UniProtKB/TrEMBL annotation:
InterPro entries: DjlA_N, TerB-like. It comes from Sulfitobacter alexandrii. CDD domains: terB_like_2 (cd07313). Pfam families: TerB. This is Co-chaperone DjlA N-terminal domain-containing protein. Residues 23-140 form the Co-chaperone DjlA N-terminal domain. It comes from the Bacteria.
Length: 145
C-alpha cells in the first residue's frame, strides 16, 4: 500500500511533500520513536492521536485513521537514517522543530525516558538537521506542560 509513497520519499531529490503526505510521514516518525523501546503502549498511542488532532485539526476518527496508516507506513519504511533524511529534504525547518517537540511529547507520554527513545531522538534530531539547542528547548517546553 505504501511502496510508491516510500519510493517517492527516498528518491535522491524528493519533491516537497503534499500536506497529507507530510502528515503521514511525520506521524510515522512519531510511531517509530514510540516503538523504539519495544513498549508501544496505550499512552503513546493516545498521545500520537492527540498530537495529530492538535497539529492538523483532525477529528478523533481522522486522527485514529492517520495513526493506523502511520503504523503501517512505519513498519514498511526503510531504516531511520534514510527515512528521516527524506523527511528533512521535504519539510521546512520550522516544521521539523515542531516535529521534535511532538517527538518529545511521545517519548514522555508514558512518564519514562527509555535509553532507546533518547538515543533515537538524538539521531532523528541530527538527521532532521535540527540544532541540539532547539531540541533541548522543545523538551523543556514539553516537560513544562
Amino acid at each position: 500500500m505504501f511502496a510508491d509513497f516510500i519510493k517517492r520519499l527516498t528518491q535522491p531529490d524528493p519533491a516537497p511533500l503534499a500536506d497529507t503526505d507530510a502528515r503521514l510521514a511525520l506521524t510515522a516518525l512519531l510511531v517509530r520513536v514510540a516503538r523504539s523501546d519495544n513498549d508501544y503502549d496505550a499512552d503513546e498511542v493516545l498521545r500520537i492521536e492527540q498530537i495529530c488532532r492538535d497539529r492538523y485539526g483532525l477529528t478523533e476518527n481522522e486522527a485514529t485513521a492517520l495513526r493506523a496508516d502511520a503504523e503501517e507506513l512505519e513498519s514498511q519504511a526503510p531504516d531511520t537514517v534514510r527515512f528521516t533524511r527524506a523527511i528533512k529534504d521535504a519539510v521546512p525547518y520550522e516544521n521539523r522543530v515542531a516535529v521534535i517537540e511532538a517527538l518529545w511529547k511521545v517519548v514522555l507520554a508514558d512518564g519514562t525516558r527509555a535509553d532507546e527513545e533518547d538515543a533515537l531522538l538524538r539521531l532523528v534530531t541530527n538527521l532532521l538537521g535540527v540544532e541540539d539547542k532547539d531540541s533541548a528547548m522543545a523538551r523543556q517546553r514539553v516537560e513544562g506542560d
